[in-house]
Design brief:
The complex is a heterodimer. By secondary structure, chain A is of the alpha/beta class. Helix content of chain A is about 35%, strand content about 20%. The relative contact order of chain A is 0.12. Chain B is an alpha/beta fold. In chain B, the strands form two sheets. Chain B has a six-stranded parallel beta sheet with strand order 2-1-3-4-8-7, sandwiched between helices. The radius of gyration of chain B is 20 Å and the shape is globular. Classes of the chains: A alpha/beta, B alpha/beta. At the A-B interface, α3 and α11 of A face loops of B. The structure holds thiamine diphosphate. Thiamine diphosphate sits at the interface of chains B and A.
Chain lengths: ~350, ~325
Amino acid sequence: MSTTTTTRRLTMAQAISEATAQEMARDPRVFVMGEDVGKYGGIFSATTGLLEQFGPERVMDTPISETGFMGAALGAAAEGLRPISELMFVDFFGVCFDQIYNHIAKNHYMSGGACKVPLVITTGIGGGYNDAAQHSQCLYSIFAHVPGLKVVVPSNAYDAKGLMTSAIRDDNPVVFLYHKGIMGLSWMSYFEGSTTEVPEAQYTIPFGQARVVREGRDLTIVTLSQMVQKSVLAADQLAAEGISAEVLDLRTLVPLDRAAVLASVAKTGRLLVADEDYLSYGLSGEIAALVAENLDTLRLKAPVRRLAVPDVPIPFSRPLEQFAIPQVDNIVASARGLMSFKLD
Amino acid sequence: MEATSEQLLWMYEKMIEIREYEETMARVYLEAKLPPKIQKGLAFDIGAGPVPGEMHLAAGQEPVAVGVCAHLRRDDTVVGAHRPHHFAIAKDVDLNAMTAEMYGKATGLGRGKGGHMHLFDPAVKFSCSGIVGAGAPQACGAALAAKKLGTDAVAIAFFGEGAANQGAFHEALNLAALWKLPVVFVVEDNKYGISVEKSASTAIASNADRAVAYGIPGVLVERNDALAVFEAAGEAVARARRGEGPTLIEVKTDRYFGHFQGDPETYRPKGEAKALRQHDPIPALGATLRARGLLDDMADAALRERVSARVQAAYDFGRNSPYPEPQDALLHVFAE
Ligand SMILES: Cc1ncc(C[n+]2csc(CCOP(=O)(O)OP(=O)(O)O)c2C)c(N)n1
């Protein structure tokens, strides 16, 4: 018997559909629905090949009725099925948020634990390709703000497969947000670091475990999703200048690996949060607050710095969008700023 | 309702303008997106080139836009959808500023903030949205305003048959019927919502039948024909202006390009798009005009030249305009 595991390089899109296919094969209760998930294989290819393998009863194209099919996912999950329901772009959540945040997120709680809601909402996030204000947001903080939803935001194919498998097996509602700019799509420039070796065999990655993508001594960059890829490029540049940056990929926002953040910041003494969501009332504030709450045990060598979208909708025009969304150069500059800071 | 010679010629010229605009865009949009200029290994880079982002073209659907807008005044409101150019052109949105917007230039309708799916021209009361189904209630609001302000302006909501499955559509119909609003809902049935065929998204054959549920007239226009749309829309707009309430119209129309540019169209039978072009509504209207003695070869050529110059000027304006300053991204979040 061979113990070697076969791996291949997969894009994040391929990794997500593979995880889904393997779970569908393992568990007949799992099914997929959403707009263009069938013949099209998902606008961002997250369901490619599933229709051919499982047929239209288990891979259902829906009408453009997000309230309808998100509510239906809840109803089916409450009956013991395990739906994966795709919201094409996260930006469209407004159409169906009542089903998500007042029902999918809360029914388990309001039933005193009597009802389970095992479903996964998959959705595309992020900008960088000029799709403007209604098609470029991240918004994961909004989902993470509502109690009762687990929130997963992978940065690469290996993690995406393991996290997706965990998401489908979880007995709770999980919002799984994939950044379009790291899916490996042929029609969008993407970050190659997101395409990785992925084992063919099934595996899970537990929620709430951040990953140190790159070890460093001088500062910690806490980040996630496509911003991980940008932070790694920034860390390369910083290394050339003699600055050693640690890059921490949160991987899941709920649950949040607070211990990993604190451990890294304890080691480096400097924190930069790099986020593609809006600045105010979001992830970057959450991480900064976490560190602030632990200043009794932590010693910082510089103030906390946050990089995020400066509270403007994502603009269409290329120079405006490049300005609004934090870029590799901004990460490098912020890191340099942190290093040059002198506390009295 | 008979179209006047003036209206007939206007519709013909606008259809040619829309077609020329969209076919030019199809070319311009591809610039610098295809190999060899893009990153190695990529087939198509949606974010590259002079016009980045998604692009939804409406070639083939001209009759819907011109047949309705022929009845409109400057002070009537049009709310379009993510596929907005044909409506915008038919509503006389400033063509130069509209094009500049798609290039992301400072001279654009939205100073580069909006882009192709988000065109706003308050001067002619035009707006649109990238959120499918969002326009229908907004048109109700414009109609409500006309009613409250005591004008006889009307509002039109244009959207696809896919959008008619949104809750917003049904809520809007009920509101409009309940409040007798001067609004006309126009559904473009081009058979597909991205890859999903209408038969797989909509339980009944015609959206016009849904009007019954709200006690308003529902009209099905079965031909992708400017005059047929003109007739249906004429009655609906007149009814709205008279204060008699909303109408729902569905038009069977054809989308010649993919859902968006770059769409591999794997869902569509091979050759379908090409076959659709054999029933092109533009030469059809041209033939009607000729039969009525309103058009001859010379007039047609002059008209086409005029339109080409206008479209070319708009693209030149867009291309040659300056980009906004990066920090302008911070402006216009709030009104001053
Ligand atoms: C609320 C919302 N859901 C989904 C989408 C993605 N989407 C954009 S266009 C489209 C299809 C629209 O079909 P239809 O309304 O028939 O218009 P058409 O594209 O055929 O003109 C979809 C699903 C969206 N933009 N907004």
